[in-house]
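Protein modeling request. Please complete all fields; requests missing the sequence field cannot be processed.
Requester role: graduate student
Desired output: 3D structure, token encoding
Chains: 1
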Amino acid sequence: MHSKRFLASLASFLVMPLSFCLSCPSVGQADDTIRVGAWNIEWLGFPDKRSGFGRNTPQKPSTVAKYIHDAKVDILALEEIGIESLETPYKSKPLQAIMDALKKEYQQDWEYILFPKTDYTADTEDFFVRGQHCGIAWRTDKATQVGEVYAVPIGKNETFGQKFFERRANAVKFSVGSGKTDLVVIPVHLKSNRADDKEKDPNYTAKQRQAELTSFVKQLDTLKSHFKDEDIVLLGDTNIMTGEIKTSGILVDAGFLDLNASDDGTTVAWGKSKYPSAPFDRIFTPKGQPEFKVTTQTTHKPDDVEKIKDHRRQLSDHYLVSVDVAIMADDD
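Delivered output (332 residues):
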């Protein structure tokens, strides 16, 4: 009986998120792993839309580059990236400046791709069309894109209208070397917790997130068949609240691990904030795949209040989260 309880406790510990402080010695990355992360860079390119401490403060490329470098991330899912125009391929001058700073300051070569959102009517405010796009960036010496971007065919939903899965799910496959680990990475930014209907139904936004993930799961077999791969990672700003088990459970039931199952806060807050740190940023990895033996999610956060305030002012209202994926002989 005691041994069963011990094993259960050990299992729950292994999926606990892990946080570290940026002023402490860096969390090292083994040569036999690649680090995959996600970060919502609050309204990058639209500083007037940032809130609180960050309002009207453009993120400096060198400051953002240092944070990404210190996190030692190799593949990074992106959320809330503004684009220059609706001409494809989408471009972001602030994001490109960050890539340039990573090259200049740290001798790292990065590439990025930004994804389209739901189409809007002609009279929609411009920033809704050109802001808050998802995307992905990667170190070209650490990972290589395999094939083209795959737009997951989510479809529409009459209940939730035009904003259903507004920031559409797109999948990109990466390889870390011939015959070695490859993985399909899907950045997501699910429905926020703001809605006109919320006063009538406090669970409205959670229901929309559940509908979005249900639609995604229905396409999972098609997705695996398209890439001929089981190594699928879905990550980003899910907006899933503390205790919102039903939403994350949709992916768990479909064969994923929620690496933030203990609801570790990933948004920036301090003191007696009206809005305490929320567990919005999550990484979901496939169960039973040997490359994903690490089941802890690291939240890259400062270690004191002043540095937390600086992060909020200079960078974002979210922290970067990451997980290490083992580099080994490819098994699928």
